[in-house]
Amino acid sequence: MNLGMAVRKFSGATSTNPSAVRSLAPAVIGLAMLAAALVLWGAQKGNGAWVGIAIAVLSIVGSAVFLVSLTARVGARQRELVQAKEALEREVAGGAERVRVLEAGKRQNEAVLASVPARLLLIDRDLNVKTSYSTELDALLRPERRDQRSFVDVLRGKIAPDVLEAAQAHLVALFDPSDDESNLAAVNPLEAVEVAAPQPDGSLLIRYLKFVFRRVYEDGAISSLLVAAEDVTEVVQTERALRESERTAQKNFDTLLGILHLDAPALDDFVRTAQGELGAIDRSLSDAPARGGGDSGPLRQRIAGIAERVTTIRDGAALLGFEHFEARAGAYLETLGEMRSRQALTGDDYLQLVNEQAAFRAEFDEMQNLRVRLTALRRAAQIQDDAGDDMLDSLGAAARELAGDLGKEISIDIDGFDSRGLSPERRLLVKDVLQELLRNAVVHGIEAATERESAGKPRAGTIEIRPIREALAGSFAFTVRDDGRGLDPVHIRERAVALGMLDADRAEQMSDSEAAGYIFVPGFTTVDEVLGESVRGAGLNAVKNRVVDECGGTISIDSESGSFCEFSFVLPAQRVSFARS
Predict the structure, then answer these.
(1) Is 542 in the same domain as 408?
(2) Residues near 397 by Cβ (< 8 Å), separated by ≥ 6?
């Protein structure tokens, strides 16, 4: 029985129903008897004693009937009230149980959400944070107040103002059903945002957070947003470190390339000049200007003097053809020019100047270190043994004779190559490989003299045979390089298709390196016409079989179309049967 039913039952006595009428009959009879007694009392005037007796009887009986009826009625009403009270108590107890279950479920949900490491929260249409959210967020956002409800206010002061403005607009758009959720996710301004979280000691902890938003629907409408926050600081820092490492590696590579193409004495003169100018700049910056002074003239003059010295360094790098360092000095000058254009200069500008000078000097020092290391490598690679390898004399003569037959001019550079420490069998293998590579360079690589002149090359092509000194101990490694036309992957594909070695579809899909591998396929050649028996050799397939298949060695190719082609060979270690003197 619910509360409404109990109230209706309690008030049911006021309704006119048969049971109610029957319960009132005794009381009515008692009242009627009292009324009759009153009537008789008024009409007795001199009548006998029997009338008085009748009046007394009627009064007593009527009063008794009325009282008994009233007592019964009150008892019935009390019983009804007790029943209504019991019904109300049952309803209250049932409601309290339901409330207890709901509160227990709420506490459980809050406990689960608070322990979720994914750092979740809900925000409503007013961008307020709902009561329940993962307490892990406190460690990330550190709100000023635990009861701070606005998500925007929680982020305010912790992220850049422009990012906060964009984030607020993004959240408003997420509550607009006309905006596609996936499109909005692609332009999320909080994808990886820098957050400055205050620490108990007053310092700021810089972290990078990623916020992901998902719409929550109720009855087909967007009711709130589920927000997942993730600390991506390590990922961002790792990516930045990787990019910085790549930039440093590229910078060192560019510097090294610049050094390699410079004349050594001229580079020495440039280094001495640059060192003198940098030392003078360091001395000019040794005294810091007074902070807060209104006169910025002395600092402006100091910047002008530094600019003159950096210009000297830049011009020296330009005359030397040292493009990388010329560009770096130019960037330094741009910074100095921007500083000189400022209306007022302060101590903070002086600090910037010191930092710029430190960065420029650090890059110069890196260049110096690379230069010293390169010089040491060159000295280590210098060949002190004047004795040549007589095996190459006959090979060189045969190559020059073949070039003459084909109307070509060649020059063979064999400085540093020596195979005399190899066993007779291994030395014969190297001879056969070199013979085939020289023939291949003359026939396929080196262009005719007129063609080379048209391409801006010397009339005579150069073939270089060099040892590889960085190979594993005991192994024998060398390169054969010509400055001819290089490998043409497009032509190789066409020839492979024409020779039936490759179908056209597969040829279009393969990479240039895969196409280059076809020069080792038996029967492959890029020469259309028959040039005679003197031109024919064993083929690169035979070279590959002997070096790779029989000896377990390796062959690699480096080529640039129109510029060069270089073969590198590494033969595994073998017992030496002939010792050099």
Answers:
(1) yes
(2) none
The answer to whether residues 102 and 188 belong to one domain is no
- Burial class from Cβ neighbours inside 10 Å (0-12, 13-18, 19+) for residue 554 reads middle
Backbone angles phi and psi of 120, in degrees to 5? -110, 155
- Cα separations (Å) of 456 from 443, 460, 563? 20, 12, 11
Exposed / middle / buried, residue 463 (Cβ in 10 Å: 0-12, 13-18, 19+)? buried
For residue 335, the enclosing domain spans: 241-381
Domain with residue 262: its CATH number is 1.20.120
Q: Give the Cα separation of 199 and 484 in Å (integer).
A: 66
List, for residues 46-73, the tens digit of each pLDDT value: 555 666 666 666 667 667 766 777 777 7
Output the pLDDT for position 143.
56
- C-alpha angle with apex 473: 468 to 475, nearest 5 degrees? 60
Mean pLDDT of 503-525: 84
Band of pLDDT at residue 43, cut at 50, 70 and 90? low
Residue 471 CB contacts under 8 Å (≥ 6 apart), including other chains: 477, 570
Whole-angstrom Cα distance, residue 356 to residue 347? Answer: 14
Average pLDDT of the chain, as a whole number: 78
Question: What is the rounded average pLDDT of the residues 200-205?
Answer: 72
- Do 341 and 262 reside in the same domain of the chain? yes
Q: Please name which of 497, 489, 485 lies closest in space to residue 513, comparing C-alpha atoms.
A: 489
For residue 580, the model assigns a pLDDT of 38
Whether residue 167 contacts residue 154, with contact meaning beta carbons closer than 8 Å, is answered with: no
Residues 211 and 262 in one domain: no
- 75 falls within a domain: yes
Q: Tell me which residue has tokens 């010397």.
A: 458
Could you please report the per-residue DSSP string of 147-175? Answer: T--BHHHHHTTTS-HHHHHHHHHHHHHHT
Question: End-to-end alpha-carbon separation of the chain, Å?
Answer: 118
Are 326 and 397 in a shared domain? no
CATH classification at residue 218: 3.30.450.20
How far is the C-alpha of 128 from the C-alpha of 227, rounded, in Å? 12
Q: What percentage of residues in the chain have a pLDDT greater than 70?
A: 72
CB 271 within 8 A of CB 364: no
